[in-house]
Amino acid sequence: MLELLALLRAHGYQTWICSGGTADFMRVVSQSYYGIPPQQVIGSRLAAQFRESGRANEIWREPKIESFNDKQMKPVNIALQIGKRPVFAAGNVGGKGDIAMLSYSQARRGPSFQLLVNHDDAERESAYAENDGASLRAASERGWTVVSMKRDWSRVYPAPGTAGSQAPAQTPALAQARSGRLHPGRSHSRHKNTSGIQDSKQERRSRWRW
């Protein structure tokens, strides 16, 4: 996915991470792993309060979850933190956690693109699927683009020292994105300064070699 993120940024798009993981953890690694600054990370969060002691102060985390950023809460938190529907949303098969986010993106006015990653490569990473196939079924019914880890990745993990800003290479999937075909069956114009969303869990550190 590093190449895709770099391509989007090169064309004036913001790229965000929207994950069920805690925002505090992901903000530490988002820049070095994905080239995404910490202020563009949306995640689960603990309840917190502001505390002062003399001239010192701090944000104090409480032992309870304020927002678990999964399923229907992803669109809610995107709306709260970005204030607009993403023009490009990418999610993963597994746990049905990204169906609502991809649906939210697709319902925006104007062009949109929804990408669903199918983790089906048991040899190079962990293959996992949903018992009822809900995410893949939603993709088929709603016209989302599905990509296969087994078929579409020439390399799953990056070479040592690879940064989140490497330049993209050309492949058929990337050529489709570059052509402006953001949604099958529709004609679209380019919209810049809009927000691309990349879902991230620990397994999603894999890089898509375009």
Summarize the entry for a quick read:
The protein has 210 residues and is an alpha/beta fold. It is 28% helix and 25% strand.
Question: Mind sketching the topology for me?
Answer:
Elements lengths: L1 H9 L3 E9 H12 L6 E13 L2 E12 L5 H9 L6 E5 L6 H8 L6 E6 L15 H9 L2 E4 H4 L19 H7 L16 E4 L12
Parallel strand pairs: 1-2, 1-7, 4-5, 4-7, 5-6
Antiparallel strand pairs: 2-3
- Spans of 5+ residues with little confidence (pLDDT < 50)? 165-174, 180-195, 200-210
Write down the overall geometry: globular
Number of domains: 1
What is the CA-atom radius of gyration, in angstroms?
18 Å
Major pleated sheet: 7 strands, mixed
CATH topology: Rossmann fold
Strand content range:
25-35%
Q: What is the structural class?
A: alpha/beta
Task: Please give a structural write-up.
The chain is α/β, with parallel strands linked by helices and 210 residues long. The protein has a single domain, classed as Rossmann fold (3-Layer(aba) Sandwich). The protein has 7 helices and 7 strands. Strands 3-2-1-7-4-5-6 form a 7-stranded mixed sheet, with helices on both faces. The relative contact order is 0.23.
Q: Which features does this protein show?
A:
single chain, 210 residues, alpha/beta, Rossmann fold, 7-stranded mixed beta sheet, 7 helices, globular
